């Protein structure tokens, strides 16, 4: 099967084409540092046979933290802890990429602390207090992305993945719903993607030519008059020209329930987006969202709609899923997409499959 063949992203050789999509696990301590629990989780995942693990989103600066328990990559103090995740992956044969993010106005964590998040533009219709970024703020955040990339290199990660999806800062820059600036960072399509192109060029210069730079891209918004697919695809092409080596296709501005569709089991709901990106760029494309079997994953790759397949929730429930398949038990992933693991967002608990018993009863697969 193609799915289980080795695959290459720039200098990175992976043992198969299965990816653990970035998953916030809420195990970091209050400073953003890796804990014993985080290390154990990554060790278990790597032992489970997945080719590439993309970490949960790590905040590149304190102003960009979205949720509790997120990993930080905002200071050199984080490097030593992150090395533990890298070791856990490498000792067990998996590649590991650090997902780097700034939440922009979506920094719920700051709001809970009574702080005011930064926004690309002042948006009067929003009830959440926010402050429009100055030119200087933008420059600082661009440098924070570069520093985060360099720290990831120093920690031993095989790649970084920019979080350019799910309504966070990079999505906000691309989206006309959130980017109403009239300077070089907003307005026209070209200006709205300028932040990405600049962040990627700087990361490429800093990390060197061999280091893989990936992006999870909200190729279109799923709200109102947001980013169109055509604009998203043009942006993807410019990002590749700037130095991106792989694109995982997801949604931009929308709700979290559009990212992880509840009850969607074995329907690859963003497949068309991945295929559309694949049509436009020559770098490896990753499909994500709703994929629950090796048959569907294989078919997506064989059809040419994507080069790799990522899953998130199935690995929360079954970190050993890939080896289970490789050992001949081809039954579908046990995760039933009920989204109960995501309630940690409000409870403050680490992310776990909190519905295993019910999942077992309902899936029967
Ligand atoms: C608990 C949880 C945490 C997530 N954390 C992240 C994250 O840190 N970064 C990200 O890009 N997506 C995150 N996602 C979205 C997933 O990576 C993925 O895009 C989505 O769940 C669809 O894939 P699936 O159907 O295989 O779960 C998260 C999803 C869940 C359920
Ligand atoms: S709680 Fe468990 S079964 Fe439900 S979506 Fe999360 S991992 Fe899947």
Outline the structure in words:
The protein is an alpha/beta fold. It has one domain (2-363): Aldolase class I (TIM Barrel, Alpha-Beta Barrel). 37% of the residues lie in helices and 15% in strands. It has helices at residues 36-47, 79-90, 108-112, 135-155, 169-174, 189-192, 194-207, 229-242, 256-259, 271-280, 294-303, 313-317, 321-326, 344-347, 356-363; strands at residues 7-9, 12-14, 18-20, 52-54, 58-59, 95-101, 118-119, 131-132, 159-164, 213-220, 246-251, 285-288, 308-311. Helix 1 runs parallel beside helix 2, helix 2 packs across helix 4 and helix 8 (229-242) crosses helix 10 (271-280). The longest helix has 21 residues, at 135-155. The mean pLDDT is 95. It binds flavin mononucleotide (FMN) and iron/sulfur cluster. Iron/sulfur cluster binds at residues 313, 316-317, 335-341, 353-355, 359.
């Amino acid at each position: 099967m193609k799915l289980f063949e080795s695959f290459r992203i720039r200098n990175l050789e992976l043992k198969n084409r299965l990816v653990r999509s970035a998953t916030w696990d809420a195990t970091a301590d209050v400073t953003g540092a890796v804990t014993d629990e985080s290390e154990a989780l990554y060790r278990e995942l790597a032992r489970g046979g997945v080719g590439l693990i993309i970490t949960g989103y790590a905040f590149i600066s304190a102003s960009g933290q979205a949720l509790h328990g997120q990993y930080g990559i905002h200071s050199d103090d984080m490097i030593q802890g992150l090395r533990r995740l890298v070791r856990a992956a490498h000792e067990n044969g998996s590649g590991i990429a650090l997902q780097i993010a700034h939440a922009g106005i979506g920094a719920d964590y700051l709001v809970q602390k009574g702080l005011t998040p930064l926004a690309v533009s002042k948006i009067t219709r929003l009830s959440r207090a926010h402050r429009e970024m100055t030119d200087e703020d933008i420059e600082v955040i661009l440098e924070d992305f570069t520093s985060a990339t360099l720290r990831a290199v120093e920690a031993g990660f095989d790649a970084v993945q920019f979080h350019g999806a799910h309504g966070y800062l990079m999505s906000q820059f691309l989206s006309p719903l959130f980017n109403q600036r009239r300077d070089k960072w907003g307005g026209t399509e070209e200006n709205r993607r300028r932040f990405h192109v600049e962040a990627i060029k700087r990361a490429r210069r800093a990390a060197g030519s061999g280091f893989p730079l990936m992006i999870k891209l909200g190729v279109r918004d799923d709200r109102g008059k947001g980013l169109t697919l055509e604009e998203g695809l043009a942006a993807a092409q410019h990002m590749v020209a700037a130095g991106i080596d792989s694109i995982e296709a997801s949604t931009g501005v929308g709700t979290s329930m559009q990212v992880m569709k509840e009850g969607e089991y074995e329907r690859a709901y963003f497949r068309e987006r991945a295929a559309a990106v694949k049509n436009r760029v020559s770098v490896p494309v990753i499909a994500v969202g709703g994929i629950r079997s090796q048959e569907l994953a294989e078919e997506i790759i064989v059809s040419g709609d994507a080069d790799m397949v990522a899953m998130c929730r199935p690995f929360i429930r079954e970190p050993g899923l890939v080896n289970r398949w490789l050992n001949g038990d081809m039954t579908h992933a046990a995760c039933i997409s009920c989204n109960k693991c995501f309630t940690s967002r409000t409870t403050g608990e680490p992310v776990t499959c909190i519905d295993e018993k019910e999942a077992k009863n309902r899936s029967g697969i």
